[in-house]
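Pilot study result, target chain (200 residues):
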Amino acid sequence: MTTGNRFGDLEISDPKVMRALAHPVRLAVLERLQRYGPATATQLSPHVGATPSVTSWHLRHLAGFGLVRDAEGATDRRERRWAAVARGWRVEVPEDEDGRAAARVLSGEVIARTAELPLRWLTDTEPGLEAEWTRNAGLANTRIVVSVEELAALQEAMEELFMPYVTRDAAERPPGSRGVRMLMYALPEGAEGGDGDASC
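Predicted structure:
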């Protein structure tokens, strides 16, 4: 695992780490630590669907794979505070079949975890939003026809565009800023779909 990308995400290429992370509670724990900062197993427990002892076990498992660590300044071993190693993570899909299968399992868990977010936003969050935020919420379902090199360049350009907002310090955010979830799926079609027709 390396951290050589512009967001400072942890890059996961080891199939064992992918399989370790491909668990609903572990994904919830890591997401919570990345979003809200260091916490104990007891503090995390109500938000991740597990008891404090089970949450603690999952935290130790994540630590064994280098995904979480002891929080800086934490000294009380009875109330161990944990922190995410990086603000985010991404998968570098291996070329061998075992690695691809592990990446597929992890992707499935992530997609299952995020699939309900748009509907939950629509029912729970959108009705209470101010008009200017609602107007600037966006949905897109666009099909493009590109080469693999063009797709890589497109994703690189989108990262470049997002980078200043992902990495800036909280003190630099303008007044009135709030979190916005950016969900992006780049789902290449099978070879039979590569006919160059972008009309559908």
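One observation from the pilot: The chain is about 45% helix and 10% strand. A full batch analysis is planned for the follow-on phase.
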